[in-house]
Amino acid sequence: MLDIIFSIPIHQRLEVVVDQICNIMHFNPNCGCVFHLSQGFDYDGSSISKQQFLEIVSKFDNVYINPVSVRTGLGDIVQAHLANYEYALKVSDFKYFSILASNESFIKPGIADMVKKYDCGCLQIDVTDFDTNTYYAKCAQNDKFLKAFEKLTGYNRIFFSNIEGQYYKRELFDKIFSLINQFYDYKEVTDFYPREEYFFSTIVGYLKSKKEPIEIGPIFTYSAYHFGHLFDATPHEIRRIINNQCNIFTVKRVDRIFSDNVRCYLRQRYGYFEQEVSLLSNYISVERKSIVGIYISDLKKWSKTLWNKKSVILKRLGIK
């Protein structure tokens, strides 16, 4: 039985998906992953063909491509994870179901040992506890499907959680999956917002209100925010997280470019570079970059960021 199966929706650059598979399987040897291919996948923008991609995937154990492709788009993803869960049940046996993004990478092993302490990992941020004037909070509060859930259960609270880095015991997600199917039909959606950031954590809140003994743990994904602005992850951030020995195992955002410095750093620093050479060298060049050069590039990126945001930084330091 697998410790975890990861659900990942993908929509571009098949060679980058191969890199993500190598990254996931390197750091998580007794885990698997199931990918949902977008109906509008940009195959022309990939450096390998779909057939070549499928041949590469066939060389991995416990890596699955969902043959069912549901509609997806910006703010329209939750059904992809539900479809992946349904497919995973047919092809694999696993203890936990977890959610990743296609621009996310593992940076260290040990996630299976962490999640087994909990029934699930998600944030429980009540939408009334933060700015309810935000667009997505308003969408959730006005969502006809969540209103249907309230009518079904009598539960009127709504919780938010970042979707990446969530995980659920299979038995718990069975209940979540069953409940969502009672009030949600993606084919009836007319307003789009990231429902996956509200549905799962809200149902966990409901089940806990019914006195179900659910132990909630932390999510395991770090999204790089600096001075209130979103930036891509960097080797600097990766080193800092690892040195802190915290319950963070993945970083986001990692650019969906095969030669991206973070991707090169991870595959070279942590030992799956040769695997990618053997899988991809017949189709594309797998470049070995200087680690020192990556560090220098990282410093330049940080310096540029600091310069561009100097007024924000000075204000936060109390300097006018």
Summed up:
The chain has 13 helices and 14 strands.
Q: What does this entry look like structurally?
A:
The protein is α/β, with parallel strands linked by helices. The protein has a domain at 121-162 and 170-219. The protein has 13 helices and 14 strands. The protein has helices at residues 14-27, 50-57, 78-91, 111-115, 135-142, 144-153, 170-183, 196-209, 235-244, 261-269, 273-280, 291-308, 310-316, and strands spanning 2-12, 31-42, 63-65, 94-99, 104-106, 120-121, 125-126, 159-160, 167-169, 216-217, 221-223, 225-226, 229-230, 250-252. The protein has a 7-stranded mixed sheet with strand order 3-2-1-4-9-6-10, sandwiched between helices. The protein has a 3-stranded mixed sheet with strand order 5-14-11. A two-stranded antiparallel ribbon has the order 7-8. Strand 2 (31-42), helix 2 and strand 3 form a beta-alpha-beta unit. The chain starts with a strand and ends with a helix. The model is unreliable at 225-229 (pLDDT under 50).
Describe the secondary-structure layout.
Elements: E1 2-12, H1 14-27, E2 31-42, H2 50-57, E3 63-65, H3 78-91, E4 94-99, E5 104-106, H4 111-115, E6 120-121, E7 125-126, H5 135-142, H6 144-153, E8 159-160, E9 167-169, H7 170-183, H8 196-209, E10 216-217, E11 221-223, E12 225-226, E13 229-230, H9 235-244, E14 250-252, H10 261-269, H11 273-280, H12 291-308, H13 310-316
Parallel strand pairs: 1-2, 1-4, 2-3, 6-10, 11-14
Antiparallel strand pairs: 4-9, 5-14, 6-9, 7-8, 12-13
Helix pairs in contact: 1-2, 6-7, 10-12
